[in-house]
UniProtKB/TrEMBL annotation:
Region (Disordered): 1-25
Domain spans labelled Tyr recombinase: 295-504
Protein's name in the database: Site-specific recombinase XerD
GO-annotated biological processes: DNA integration; DNA recombination
Positions with biased composition (Pro residues): 1-12
Gene Ontology molecular function: DNA binding
């Protein structure tokens, strides 16, 4: 493939006359540093820091200097070339997650584009204060966020702001140095769950569930619950209940195990730090047994996945803009062929993850931040690259991510990173479209597609590795980011054919 024509440095026309840029600070550097004073230099700095163009002014002369021929210029910069046929100058500028081109007479100014990009990345770039006093509000914001998370989840700090019968009032043994459950919960969340927003959300959800049950049963606070109380709570979690349609439903063993694990962790930590004189939750959770007995059941058949792949590879529906369809295809390709969790494709600006690296052989590797803040690398198969490259092209980016590129893999229509709910909706849209394109006799497949989600694609990825291609379990565990190889091995239990093949191969029939 012919390399892109390298653009000349931004034409100073329209830049040097711009007013000086506001004093911005790049907090992504260690130590943080101020951006250059001039708009031109600041644009060059930000483009290098983010790994994509910010503002480029083009004339026909500049375009000719950067490309061997006009044919190459037309091929590499079709939008700019078309504009220069009717206008003296054109501008390419970054807006809402992609590179746009307009005549210079109607394009926004360089200073305006720069400020928009900086504000879009406001977690990294901040207006520099007049003095150099370091920002000491981080710990305060973190503590407030924990309280806000509890309130948003339904656990009122006021309900927890008291101590139960098992709370220790002896300062010599109470190493937390707090006198009520609200403060003790805050310290627990800070130490055990603050390193990952997903872990914090899961812990708060389970504490909310326990608090709601305590309120209904007129019990509490947490430090007042007896072992009998917690056993009764476990029975409630495991009990069958009537669903909205009248059907009897029972919580999945993994869900019960997760809820009890959080509760057990809270009480064990409180007891270990001396806040509680006893641990009423000792032995309450059976996490190991739950892992040993867990078996994934949410699968799509090979035929259903192939049908979805064909739909995603086809033309965009009439009511879907081409940019949105290209984005949807890229999202589908990543979840389908990387086996990642939903949250692992959500942009983390602090870590600049997820990101894609391309080696000298043009092989792509996806780097994601998994559970427990563990970064892992997932090689991407060649079959998913066309969709990813096509999406990059409609964003005005080169086919292959250059070294140092730091921008969200998936952008929203507002130009920021697409969040978890948006990613989920895009995958569900592929499932829904695939369901509508099935013949009437495929009712079972249609029902499966209508109920499928991103995690079904992860299960399918794991099953392909473990069952279909018999990838060694430690390798599959590393690709999937499982903490325990037992979780990976559970996929082998979903298909008895493999076990039978092993047995038959081990004990062949001796011909007479």
């Amino acid at each position: 493939m012919k390399p892109s024509c390298p653009p000349d440095p931004p034409d100073p026309s329209g830049l040097s006359q711009a007013p000086p840029a506001p004093r911005w600070l790049d907090t992504g550097c260690r130590p943080p540093q101020r951006l250059p004073d001039s708009v031109e230099a600041a644009i060059e700095y930000v483009a290098q820091a983010l790994g994509h163009p910010v503002y480029i002014r083009w004339t026909l002369a500049i375009l000719k200097r950067g490309c061997p021929s006009l044919a190459d210029a037309k091929h590499e910069h079709p939008s700019v070339f078309a504009l220069l046929l009717d206008h003296d100058a054109a501008v390419e500028y970054w807006e809402r997650g992609r590179l746009r081109a307009q005549p210079e007479t109607v394009a926004p100014s360089a200073a305006m584009v720069l400020e928009r990009v900086l504000r879009q990345h406001r977690r990294r770039f901040r207006l520099a204060p007049d003095d150099e006093v370091p920002d000491t509000s981080l710990a305060m914001r973190h503590e407030v966020a924990e309280d806000a998370a509890l309130k948003a989840a339904g656990v009122e700090p006021a309900w927890l702001a008291r101590a139960g019968r098992f709370a220790s009032a002896v300062a010599l043994t109470n190493t937390l140095g707090v006198a009520d459950d609200a403060q003790a919960v805050r310290l627990f969340l800070r130490e055990r769950a603050s390193h990952s927003p997903h872990t914090l959300r899961a812990y708060v959800t389970e504490l909310r569930r326990l608090a709601a049950w305590c309120t209904r049963e007129h019990l509490g606070p947490f430090s007042d619950l007896t072992r009998q109380d917690l056993m009764a709570y476990r029975d409630v979690l495991q009990a069958a209940r009537a669903g909205a349609s009248g059907t009897v439903r029972r919580a999945a063993p993994a869900s019960v195990s997760r809820a009890l694990a959080v509760v057990s962790s809270l009480y064990a930590w409180w007891h270990r730090t001396g806040y509680l004189s006893v641990n009423p939750a000792e032995g309450l959770a059976a996490g190991r047994r739950a892992r040993m007995t867990w078996t994934p059941v949410r699968f799509l058949s090979t035929a259903a996945l192939a049908h979805c792949d064909a739909v995603a590879a086809g033309d965009a529906p009439e009511d879907v803009p081409s940019v949105i369809w290209a984005r949807r295809r890229a999202i589908w390709a990543l979840y389908r062929f990387a086996g990642i969790r939903l949250a692992e494709l959500v942009w983390n600006e602090a870590l600049a993850l997820p990101r894609i690296e391309v080696d000298a052989a043009r092989q792509w590797t996806l780097h994601v931040n998994g559970k427990g803040n563990k970064v892992r690398a997932v090689p991407l198969p060649s079959t998913c690259l066309p969709a990813l490259r096509a999406y990059r092209r409609v964003r005005g980016l080169p086919d292959d991510p250059p070294p140092g590129e730091q921008l969200p893999l998936i952008h929203s229509e507002r130009g920021r990173a697409l969040g978890g709910s948006g990613l989920y909706d895009e995958v569900r849209a592929v499932f829904a479209l695939a369901a509508t394109r099935l013949p009437p006799e495929e009712s079972a497949m249609r029902a499966a597609l209508e109920g499928a989600s991103t995690h079904w694609l992860r299960h399918g990825y794991a099953r392909t590795l473990v069952v279909d291609h018999r990838v060694p379990l430690p390798v599959a565990q590393a690709l999937l980011g499982h903490a325990s190889v037992q979780t990976t091995a559970a996929y082998a239990r979903t298909d008895g054919t493999q076990l039978r093949d092993f047995v038959e191969g081990s004990f062949p029939v001796n011909p007479r």
